[in-house]
Amino acid sequence: MVEKIDSVAYYSKLANSSASENKYRNALYYTQKAINFSKANHQKEAQANQTYSLGKLYYDVKKYDDAIKAFLKSVSLSKTLKPSSIQATTYYYLGLCYIKKEDFSNAKISFDKAQSCYDTLEITTTADLLNLQRGIIYKSKGDSDTAFTIFSTIIARPDNPALLDTKAEALYQIGTIEMARNRNNLALNYFNKALDLNAKNKNLEQKSDILLALSAVHEKMLDKNNAYTYLKQHSNLKESISLIDNEKLGVDDYEKFKESERLKEIAEINKENIQKEKTSKFSKLISILAIALISILSLLSLSLYKNNIIRTQSNLLLEEKNRELILAKEKAEKASNARTEFLSTVSHELRTPLNAINGIAHLLLEDRPKKSQMNYLESLQFSGNYLTNFINDILEINKIDSSKVQIENINFNLKLLLENIQNSLKELASANNNNFNLEIDSDIPDYLIGDPTKLSQILMNLINNALKFTHNGEVNVITKLIASEDKKAFVYFEVKDSGIGIPEDKLETVFDSFSQGSVGINRKYGGTGLGLTIVKKLVVILGGEIKLESVVDKGSSFSFKLPFKVSKKPVKVSKKLKPNNDCNLKDKKILVVEDNKINQMVSKKMLENKGVVCKIVDNGEDAIEIAKNNTYDMILMDVHLPGINGTIATKKIREFDTTTPVIALTAISLNENRKMLLSFGMNDVITKPFVPENFYAIISKHI
């Protein structure tokens, strides 16, 4: 049978051939020809089917808005026709478009209609496809349990080539649910299974999503190498997909096709109007008026068309500028992240040798040194402590800049907090012969809700600076209640001194990192120049703004206002255990897990000085085996070890021993915190470089 050149079947065949060769511009052109032919010949079913094909082409090139319009038109055309598989498939792809647009309500309606059509036609092979999409919709609405059940049903199906893509997607979706629940090992397992199935179905978009998810879950598990590897694979694949998409249908091809269709539509309107004019039986006057009206409409259409072109060009220009801005923003963020990671790494890596320096200095001072050696050892100890404070300040700024500082909202007594700060700094005030006064407004509520730790950090820095730069003078700490409304209190804080003051040209830069006014001040008074940087950042985090007034040789005033919630509940005062460094540790058995040889020697010597029987191992695997076969009064566990790290080793030990205290030894980094370490089963944390008194106190507390 010879196929007619001008027919729906002929144009459909050309369109399918063009699509298979990635020539989507030609495919769109021939599909539109088929639609026009079926419309002109009043073939409604063919028009509905070809309009569906047009929508499918738009879906393939990711033009989802145009695809939705085409699918809706196809559905409208087929309403008066008998249900068919194409009608059901149209609803299914319409639902997929809505999923891509994150319009989950309309997506659900479309999939339900598709299911109804398939049921009418008694087609059951699409059940898993529809269930997969329903699972995605449940997940998007926060109902992870129902979604999990649906996805689990799909992955339980026997393998067959038609189901591979669906099962891979279900495994990926379960993986994202498990990752959201912080069950990262389970998530990793599902993502790897999804990737294995994906290798058989060649779905690049799906593979890209799985690679990105694998990078994210490795990032959460602190496996930076794998996280980076998968992220790089994802980026490369995304670029390949983009190139493939551009080969299918470039921006220029798409715009040319749309412009061509608009021009054809205008031409068709003009043609119809001319035909009407020829067949019109109206009078000559009416004909002239009709022609004039058609001309006006044509001019308006042309004007609108030109305006649309101008608008499209303007939009493209704006999009290009937006992309440039986004790239610039991303570059700035990458530079900031690189700086933060570098400083964090340097700070972290310096703590381990510092721990050795401070520990050896402490041991030598305890070993009855000669008088001639005392000055050297005390200088060494001072330098170690200074460098420790400096590193702590760098790490604190990194935490603030990387948004890893969490704000607490707990009940506390502001008056008691201020009195404790005053008591802790009395010795420094006395050393410089300063009067240290505390003025507390009696109207301030007894109990407030806020972050007392960060408030203490702010005030300690400001008061410490005031006492350090003031001699034979006064330092006043003033607090006032500014306003109290709707169970909120706004409190004013001021730290005022009569010290050396700050030059006017330095007032703008004094809050910058490593800024101390001048090199002379730095040499005379010391300090890192980071304290005021930390103060400013913390005040902003707590919802305030710090102000500075200063006159050289007359003093300085730092002030800020902070909001607090008012609490009526009294603060529970817990009795703090005083460090009992002299408690009997003799003959206690302690296992020390530490890979650094010098720190092994320091820790062992400090423990043996208290009569402790000490066993040293340098890796997590040996620690697990020794703890399993021996009884110890305590385990001191370094967090960063070769092989498995200290947190995983502790988790393994807790599987057979839940009672022996395990204390973390860590040069704590930007990504670590006390809460995270305790979650692995550790009882307490000793931070390197550790202060000997705190070292003994924490051990005594848990022994």
List the helices and strands and how they pair.
Layout: H1 8-20, H2 24-40, H3 44-60, H4 64-77, H5 85-100, H6 104-120, H7 127-140, H8 144-155, H9 164-180, H10 184-201, H11 204-220, H12 224-248, H13 251-279, H14 284-366, H15 371-401, E1 410-412, H16 414-424, H17 426-431, E2 435-440, E3 448-450, H18 452-468, E4 474-485, E5 488-497, H19 519-525, H20 531-541, E6 547-551, E7 555-566, E8 589-593, H21 597-608, E9 613-617, H22 620-629, E10 634-638, H23 646-653, E11 662-666, H24 674-678, E12 684-687, H25 692-702
Parallel strand pairs: 2-4, 8-9, 8-10, 10-11, 11-12
Antiparallel strand pairs: 1-3, 3-7, 4-5, 5-7, 6-7
Shape: elongated
Helix content: 55-70%
- Name the average pLDDT: 83
Distance between the first and last residues' Cα: 95 Å
**SS-based structural class?**
alpha/beta
What is the number of beta strands?
12
Count of discrete alpha- or pi-helical segments spanning 4 or more residues: 25
Rg computed from alpha carbons, rounded to a whole number of angstroms? 37 Å
What share of residues are in beta strands?
A: 5-15%
